[in-house]
Design brief:
With about 500 residues, this protein is α/β, with parallel strands linked by helices. It is about 40% helix and about 10% strand. Strand 12, helix 13 and strand 13 (about 395) form a beta-alpha-beta unit. Helix 14 (about 400-405) packs across helix 16. The mean pLDDT is about 85.
Amino acid sequence: MNIAVNAVELLAGLFIGVMGLLTLVLAVLFVIDRRQTGDAIRRNYPVIGRFRYLFSELGEFFRQYFFAMDREEMPFNRAQRDWVTRAATGESNTVAFGSTRSISLPGTAIFVNAPFPPLNDQYAKTEPMLIGPTARTPYLAPSFFNISGMSYGAISKPAVEALSRGAKEANIWLNTGEGALSPMHLEGGCDLVFQIGTAKYGLRDAEGRLDDDKLRAVAAHDSVRMFEIKLAQGAKPGKGGILPAAKITPEIAEIRHIPMGQDSLSPNRHPEVKSFDELLDMIEHVREVTGKPVGIKTVAGSEEVFRGFFDAIVRRGADSAPDFITLDGGEGGTGAAPMPLIDLVGMSVREALPVVANIRDEHGLKERVRLVASGKLTNPGDVAWALAAGADFVTSARGFMFALGCIQALKCNKNTCPTGITTHDPHLQKGLVVERKYTRVARYARGLIGEVETIAHSVGVAEPRLMRRRHVRIVQADGHSIPMNEILPSYSPVAET
């Protein structure tokens, strides 16, 4: 009996102590909120006003997991992410009871099924495609789907290693991003595209200019197959890259040749390039020094700009052309960029790609300049559309982040990524186990390629690069669809057949 009484008294004492402590905390918060002058809500509604910010923070979580429908989230909806996850984990990507996609939304692409598609023994895998025929070491690229630029620094060490190993297993290329070449890129043994950003990380001299000796040293790696001069990316055209100081480790600082303790900001363009001719000079210089194909990455702002660029190429001769153009869309992703640039600057890849493909073909450079499409192209339908619209290759960054386990927490710029992908916090990186994740990367790539081939067979061609704009219908504002080749016909000396 005494034990029971003592237990009750102890619990009562604990309850009184906890309530007293809680009351004290609330009283302190009340005084703080009432006395501060920076926040009107907290000043007028002490303590209670704090819940507004808590609920705003939690709202993102509740929308993602409880309230948003499969096709409602932004920038990538649950249906898109779930498809990548199932492909990456080797699960079946079949669904039941019909599509959840609204096919009446303007801009929706619908593929035209053939009445007599190829039989099973008439299917074909996509053939490798040559890039840079005039380079001393051209590149025969084996896959039409590859990994877009994500630099070491923007993403973590285990993330880079998993992407490199996964790319090797899937036989696709990996773009280094503008953060230079790290040991993790090389460790997997995959084909690499070295991106030369405006800050020239890994290639810069003391003044930030291009150092030819460092360029030759990078090109000496057999796995570095091409170089990409970055002019702009979709999420922030006209703005250089941003690597927050919190994400700069001593190793990253050494690889990039940048100081510790401050944000690393790239120039908004290459200082030595202020005209098309100077851009072509730089392309020719890098190709001559490295002996490997050289392309550019940019965002379309207008049709006139690309016409001027291709006019300059024709004037100087086809040998002066970039070996490839990576065309990013204004809807592209990034870890950190000003909202006005993310939201308002740059043409969508869905508008720009057919236009740029036509301009290239009008100038007789279809076989000389390869087009690489980028910008939120993560699912089979997106990739199939891009190939039909005129792309030779498609690259994705966010799709492969989802394959690594990204949950779209939108913490890429805060060094607090809960999945270990975009953080350099060792505790958070422990969640990303390379031995498990690299197989997901490879399965996602192979799964997407297989499903794009399925779409190609459905429309009546043997392999994806044989798809044409006539194989796609685009839904209009009135709900009806029109063949894409009627909206924007492909350029051809003769009518498209």
